[in-house]
Design goal:
Helix content: 40-55%
Order of helices and strands: HHEHEHEEEHEEHHH
Strand order of the largest sheet: 1-2-5-4-3
CATH class: Alpha Beta
CATH topology: Beta Polymerase, domain 2
Shape: globular
Largest sheet: 5 strands, mixed
Number of helices: 8
Number of strands: 7
Number of domains: 1
Distance between the termini: 33 Å
Length: 172
């Protein structure tokens, strides 16, 4: 089974939320990049996830939000979460301004069978570091972030020096 078909099967994406969101971005000329666990998957051996984390260029966010009819949209202080009936895929659009520079440094990479703009490996690590150090984040999510950091520094040992000692001591 091809990677994209596998991902759609795992996320039970019968409504093609993934394709619909990327078609919307294409129609609107939205600049974006993949971050989070799916971005980690672009750099190392992939693991299954139901989440797709994205950053949209801040100037494009209002236009995208106006065109999200037909999706279930939840707004949070630093994200807009998009989902749809007929899919377990959760798309989280990160609106925290710290992530904005990631869009300009992104490059096209294979992400489970799709070629998408993906944040640089340095930026993916930085995003994971922010997440793992966020005290308001669920403990189970922080554990996954630690595992993603470990996966990145195993593949890219030069990144180890960018990981603060307090985080490094938590890595197995």
């Amino acid at each position: 089974m091809q990677a994209l078909a596998f991902w759609r099967t795992v996320t039970v994406d019968t409504s093609d939320v993934l394709g619909r969101v990327f078609d919307l971005f294409d129609r609107l000329g939205t600049r974006f990049c993949v971050i989070g666990g799916v971005a980690v998957n672009a750099y190392v051996e992939p693991v299954v996830t139901l989440d797709l984390d994205l950053v949209i260029a801040s100037a494009d966010v209002p236009d995208v939000e106006r065109h999200l009819g037909g999706f279930r949209v939840e707004r949070f202080p630093h994200s807009v979460n998009v989902s749809a009936d007929g899919s377990d895929l959760r798309i989280q659009i990160q609106t925290d301004p710290r992530y904005q520079a990631f869009v300009d440094r992104a490059r096209p990479l294979d992400v489970l069978g799709l070629t998408l703009p993906v944040a640089s490996v340095d930026d993916v690590l930085q995003g994971k570091l922010w997440a793992v150090q966020d005290p308001d984040r669920r403990a189970s999510k922080r554990q996954k972030d630690l595992a993603d950091i470990a996966r990145l520094i195993e593949r890219y040992p030069h990144l180890r020096d960018r990981v603060p000692e307090g985080v490094r001591t938590k890595l197995l």
